[in-house]
Amino acid sequence: MTLIARLAAASALTATLALAAGAVQARPFTPQDMATAARIGAPQISPDGRYALYGLRTVDYAANRGVNAIWVIDLKAKGAAPRRLKASDGGAAAARWSPDGKAIYFNSSRGGSAQVWRTDLTGDAAVQVTSAPFDVGAFRVSPNGKTVVISQAVFPDCPTLACTKERLTKTTKASGAVHDKLFVRHWDEWADGRRNHLYALTLGADGVASGEPVAITKGFDGDIPTKPYGDEADFNFTPDSKAVSFSAKLAGKDEPWTTNYDLWLTPVDGSAAPVNRTPGNKAWDAGPVFSPDGKFGAYRAMKRPGFEADRYGIIVRDAQGKDREIAPAWDRSADTVVWSRDGKTIYTTAGDIGQTRLFAIDVATGKVTPLTGKGHVGAFDVSGDSIVYAQDTLDSPARLYRMDLKGKNVVELVNANPQLAEVQWGAYDQFEFPGWNNETVRGYLVKPANFDAAKKYPVAFLIHGGPQGSFGNLFHYRWNAQAYAARGYAVVMIDFHGSTGYGQGFTDAISQHWGDRPLEDLQKGWAFAQQKYPFLDGGRACALGGSYGGFMVNWIASQWKEPWKCLVNHDGLFDTRFMAYSTEELWFTEWENGGMPYMPNTTYAAFNPADHVGKWSKPMLVVHGQNDFRVPLEQGLSTFTALQRQGIESKFLYFPDENHWVLKPQNVVQWHDEVLGWLDKWAK
User: Fold this and answer.
1) DSSP H helices in 509-664
2) What CATH homologous superfamily does 425-683 map to?
3) Which residues contact 626 (CB under 8 A, 6 or more apart)?
4) pLDDT of 491-541, one tens digit each?
5) Which residue, 619, 629, 600, is CA-closest to 188?
6) What is the rounded distance in angstroms from the CA atom of residue 51 to the CA atom of residue 49?
7) Segment 157-205, tens digit of pLDDT
8) What pLDDT, on a 0 to 100 scale, did the predictor assign at position 7?
9) How far out from the chain centre does Cα 562 lie?
């Protein structure tokens, strides 16, 4: 019996015994439940449409780390249980089918470094495919199955891999690093001059790579995939397997303040340098994919240079190189793009009124059809006659589903967290109200678990980051509303102006208006929620936020402090001017404030929390990670210093091993223990 099957059986037995005893007692959702929940990865349907692979990340809590494995399910066998491949022992991620469906390629570090490995559908044994000198990042196998392209971090001025290896192994007691351009550091890593480059290797009849790797992006001054979180979606083989198209930005001196990612084309034999295929667009071009018949390419493109939250339109390019945007009037930003097998439809996901839905777009007419309703579709794949997708909600981690190409006949395939069946979730409700400019703004209310309409409840008022983001109908692994609902709090979340999924104009409204329009939405949303939901105790409420949400916590500490018993600021901005000089992706601060602080007519001074700390008085918990280079540590330390110097009740939770996010399982639990304890002290 599989692990999932055993867990399901145990859960069912527990429920049966409880019913027999007449004492069913649901338990609360805990931070450890969240930290240890299994996470379903992107599904991959076999070429013949019969099987679906998916990654499953479980947690070794004692070791404080995640464990990745490959699972497979038979889509044609009714009621088939998923099966873990034994080849996953030692770790296995990013599993992909071979073009003929007879083999499965995946990434694993079981041999001491991350390399490509191979197994078959039985999954009993694994064979190492690559023996690259450095960790393999992303990889792709060519459509003809004869080539694998891998990414390696190398010095772009090195003519060989051996050159990079030699440079890395040179020893000296001097520790200084000299930089002559930005980035000096990015996200959570200091720059050492290496770039992610692509290398092609020949696959033999046994599916194992042989011969010397061919540098196909030799000398290219940029990263493929992009850092820090790019993957194989950043590059793709052409249908004839002779070339690779990739999305990348030429670094130069302006890398930190430009979003000019272009699509490039390079031959897999390394016979020519990459050629820019989208030189006319100075904004972001991403995600090249090709139609099954090879007659068309598709990619996503923004229009405004320097704006990372611009709308992604879907561009189709024909064999003559002519581009056409499909569905240009569709006011949503496309995520992953997948072609149908007949090339007539493009499937994509996009934020949509507090949901993330899967859409089908007719390539010829641009007609857009939503295929899913409420919930958050995180990943999907399309076969000849069906779609397999992962979807989560505010009260469920992602589950795997299958439906037909019309969005009908939905069947649940995998529930990777049957142990959560015994949890009492907080019910949720989406509401809307007139916000800034009298425009419709939406939010969510999550009731406390074991809700009693006769009671009044304290409130956790969550403010999302981004700021171009959303606290929508999804299962968040850091800001999870159910963690507060389980503790007896009602949760209010407002998708203020600037949030995504409500049209590009709505998203644009926050730029150079960080402290006025969103604040008005938050204030009006808070007032509306108290009127609509009489069980909210407005006198026992705390406001919490991270990143931009942390900025807003610092801002309302002086501008709207009256309702709050306490505040929680995670990795939030304290001084907007200093932030502009110390963060790494300068395009963000420049767009959001209208330039750098030394330039005229910017908005840094208009909404700078540091200029108003004398008005602070509310207790605040400040959280920050040492390796946060997006909002550097000094922003959190400055916030705490301003609080302490004024004698305001405050705490500082510092993580020496976390970045802008808190990711390690035991740190996640500690974070929630401190945050919930802080709320309990002041509001409960």
Assistant:
1) 517-532, 548-559, 576-582, 586-593, 633-645
2) Alpha/Beta hydrolase fold, catalytic domain (3.40.50.1820)
3) 633, 654, 655, 656, 657, 658
4) 999 999 999 999 999 999 999 999 999 999 999 999 999 999 999 999 999
5) 629
6) 6
7) 999 999 999 999 988 889 999 999 999 999 999 999 999 999 999 999 9
8) 37
9) 34
Give residue 25's pLDDT.
Answer: 66
Give the pair of three-digit tokens for residue 156.
């772009």
Provide DSSP, 456-492.
-EEEEEEE-SSSS----SS--SSS-HHHHHTTT-EEE
Name the DSSP class of 622.
Answer: E
Number of H helices, E strands in the chain: 11, 39
The residue-averaged pLDDT of 89-95 equals: 97
Q: Please answer whether residues 402 and 388 qualify as being in contact, where contact means their C-beta atoms are separated by less than 8 angstroms.
A: yes
Q: Which residues lie below 8 Å from residue 248, measured CB to CB, with a gap of 6+?
A: 220, 222, 223, 224, 226, 234, 261, 262, 264
Contact partners, residue 119, CB within 8 Å, separation at least 6: 70, 85, 87, 103, 104, 106, 125, 126, 127
Residues 6 or more apart from 448 whose CB is under 8 A from it?
Answer: 426, 457, 485, 486, 488, 489, 490
For 506, the enclosing helix (H) or strand (E) is helix 504-508
Contact by Cβ (8 Å): 597, 581: yes
- Are residues 581 and 631 in contact, defined by beta-carbon separation less than 8 angstroms? no
Q: pLDDT tens, 544-569?
A: 999 999 999 999 999 999 999 999 99
Position 278: which residue type? T
pTM: 0.95
- pLDDT, tens digit (0-9, with 9 covering 90-100), for 31-54: 999 999 999 999 999 999 999 999
Axis-axis angle for helices 548-559, 517-532 (nearest 10) = 80
CB atoms under 10 Å from CB of 168, counted, come to 14
Tokens of 179: 């930089």
Report the C-alpha gap between 522 and 493 in whole angstroms: 9
Side-chain-side CA neighbours of residue 545 (13 Å):
28
**503, 477, 519: which is closest to 661 by C-alpha?**
477
pLDDT beyond 70 at 312: yes
pLDDT grade, residue 607 (50/70/90)? Answer: very high
